Design the sequence.
C-alpha cells in the first residue's frame, strides 16, 4: 500500500535506527526505498538486514529532491510516504495511517514531530525551539496555528495520483513547502494527521542549527517570489523580533534598563514553557538559547534575502547540487 522513500547522505547510524523502527511496525503494509545520494560513507550494510522489505539504491550526489524523485520513479505503492533519515517512527504509525485513509480519502498529509526520550538534552531543546507556539506560531502542526499547515518531508505523504499530476520535488531549500503549495494549487487537499507523529532528531549542535534556520529564513523570500501572496504575518515575526530586540537593547543601554524588560519577560516565558513541556531543567535552560538561535537566525536570513534580493545559499546549492 505504501512506498516509504528515504534520501540519505552520510548518516549510517541514523538510518540504522530509522530502519529498526520501521521493522518494529505493528503492520508491514509498505516497502522502503533508501536512496543513498552519493554518500562517501554508504549505508548499504545498515540496509542489508532488512532486505525483505528495504530496497537500497546508490546514485550520484545531486541533492535531496532528486533523491526523492529517484525513489518515487521506482516505487510500487499507491501512496508515497517521506521521512528524513534522522527520524524514528513509532510502532503504530502505519497502522494508524492505514486506518485514517480507510476512514476518508486523503490526497496529501503531514504529521507533527516530537523528541524521543532517548534524544540528548540539546536535541530536545532544539525540538522545543522548532515546535513551540512561542517560537514558530504553530506552523509545524501545533495545536495552535497562525498559518495553514503545510506538510514537511520529515513526515509527509501523498497519493500516486498527486505525484502523477504535480510531479516531483524541485531542488531548492524549503522544497517541501514548495511541493505542498503546488499540491494545493493543483486542487488537492492537505490534511494534518496529529496521530501520525514521528520522533525527529534534528541538528546536534547550535552551530549547525543556526545555519539551518538562517537558510530557512532566506528560503521564505524565495517562496514569496514563487507564490505571490503566500507571505503571512507569522513569517515576518522572527525578523521583527530581531529588529525589536536590537532596538530594545540599544534603548536599554542608552536610556533605561527598563526597555530590556519585555525581552526578559519573553525569555522567562520560554524557559517555563520548555520546563512544563519537557519536565527537564537542563533541557529548559538549553531551550532558551535554542529558541533565540531559531528566531534570530531565521530573522537574519529573512532580512538578508529581503534586502539583497538574492538567496546565496539556494544559488550555491543549485549550482553544486550537494547535500549538507
Sequence:
Amino acid at each position: 500500500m505504501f512506498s516509504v522513500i528515504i534520501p540519505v547522505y552520510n548518516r549510517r547510524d541514523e538510518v540504522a535506527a530509522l530502519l529498526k523502527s520501521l521493522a518494529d511496525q505493528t503492520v508491514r503494509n509498505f516497502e522502503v526505498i533508501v536512496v543513498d545520494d552519493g554518500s562517501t560513507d554508504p549505508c548499504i550494510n545498515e540496509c542489508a538486514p532488512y532486505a525483505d522489505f528495504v530496497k537500497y539504491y546508490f546514485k550520484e550526489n545531486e541533492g535531496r529532491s532528486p533523491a526523492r524523485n529517484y525513489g518515487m520513479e521506482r516505487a510500487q505503492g499507491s501512496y508515497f510516504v517521506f521521512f528524513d533519515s534522522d527520524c524514528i517512527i513509532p510502532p503504530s504509525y502505519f497502522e494508524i495511517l492505514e486506518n485514517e485513509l480507510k476512514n476518508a480519502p486523503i490526497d496529501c498529509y503531514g504529521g507533527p514531530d516530537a523528541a524521543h526520550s532517548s534524544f540528548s538534552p540539546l536535541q530536545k531543546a532544539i525540538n522545543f525551539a522548532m515546535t513551540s507556539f512561542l517560537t514558530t506560531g504553530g506552523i509545524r502542526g501545533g495545536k495552535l496555528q497562525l498559518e495553514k499547515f503545510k506538510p514537511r518531508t520529515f513526515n509527509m505523504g501523498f497519493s500516486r495520483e498527486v505525484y502523477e499530476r504535480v510531479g516531483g520535488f524541485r531542488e531548492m531549500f524549503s522544497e517541501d513547502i514548495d511541493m505542498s503549495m503546488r499540491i494545493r494549487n493543483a486542487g488537492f487537499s492537505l490534511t494534518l494527521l496529529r496521530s501520525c507523529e514521528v520522533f525527529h532528531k534534528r541538528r546536534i549542535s547550535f552551530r549547525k542549527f543556526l545555519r539551518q534556520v538562517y537558510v530557512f529564513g532566506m528560503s521564505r523570500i524565495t517562496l514569496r517570489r514563487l507564490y505571490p501572496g503566500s507571505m503571512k504575518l507569522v513569517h515576518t515575526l522572527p525578523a521583527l523580533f530581531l529588529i525589536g530586540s536590537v532596538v530594545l537593547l540599544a534603548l536599554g543601554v542608552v536610556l533605561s534598563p527598563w526597555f530590556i524588560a519585555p525581552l526578559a519577560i519573553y525569555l522567562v516565558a520560554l524557559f517555563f514553557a520548555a520546563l512544563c513541556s519537557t519536565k527537564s531543567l537542563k533541557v529548559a535552560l538549553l531551550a532558551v538559547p535554542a529558541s533565540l538561535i531559531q528566531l534570530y537566525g531565521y530573522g537574519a536570513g529573512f532580512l538578508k534575502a529581503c534586502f539583497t534580493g538574492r538567496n546565496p545559499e539556494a544559488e550555491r546549492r543549485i549550482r553544486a547540487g550537494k547535500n549538507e
About this structure: The chain has 13 helices and ten strands. Strands lie at 2-8, 30-37, 54-59, 79-83, 87-88, 108-110, 113-114, 155-159, 190-192, 198-200. The chain has a mean pLDDT of 90.
